[in-house]
Write a structure and sequence with these properties.
The chain has about 130 residues and is an alpha+beta fold. It contains 4 helices and 5 strands; from the N terminus they run ββββααβαα. Helix 2 packs parallel to helix 3. The radius of gyration is 18 Å and the shape is elongated.
Length: about 130
């Protein structure tokens, strides 16, 4: 049984993902997907997307550990890691996942705060007098 490893990233979140042929179990940080994300159905769908696109939802076990960022960024990082691991497992999946944008790392990060500004771009309120 081959275990495939891949790293997924999004914002400050990093996900280490291992996939093995199995029965569709998903363990993230030692919890099932439902325990880990609770009532966030859209995030659960995001995490499952690469497996559903390649029709591997019931035939791959996923084990992942995440660190950094919030739960939304972590979910995106897990999705990215699963997609990369699936391509490493079966290179023909690349033709399915690449057009969906699942192999591209979303490189958007928080813009830094500039001097003289309240936030990255927000200027202090102007006072005429």
């Amino acid at each position: 049984m081959a275990t495939i490893y891949a790293t997924g990233k999004r914002k400050e979140a990093i996900a280490k993902v291992w996939i093995t042929p199995g029965n569709g179990e998903m363990l993230i940080n030692g919890k099932t997907l439902d325990q880990w994300l609770g009532g966030h159905e859209t995030l659960k769908m995001k995490v499952r997307l690469p497996l559903e696109a390649t029709k591997q939802l019931e035939s791959m076990n996923v084990k992942a550990s995440t660190l950094g960022g919030g739960y939304s960024a972590q979910a995106d990082a897990v999705k990215h890691g699963i997609a990369k691991a699936l391509v490493a497992y079966e290179p023909s999946f690349r033709a399915i996942l690449k057009p969906m944008g699942l192999l591209t790392r979303d490189s958007r990060v928080v813009e830094r705060k500039k001097p003289g500004k309240k936030k990255a771009r927000r200027s202090p309120q102007f006072s005429k007098r």
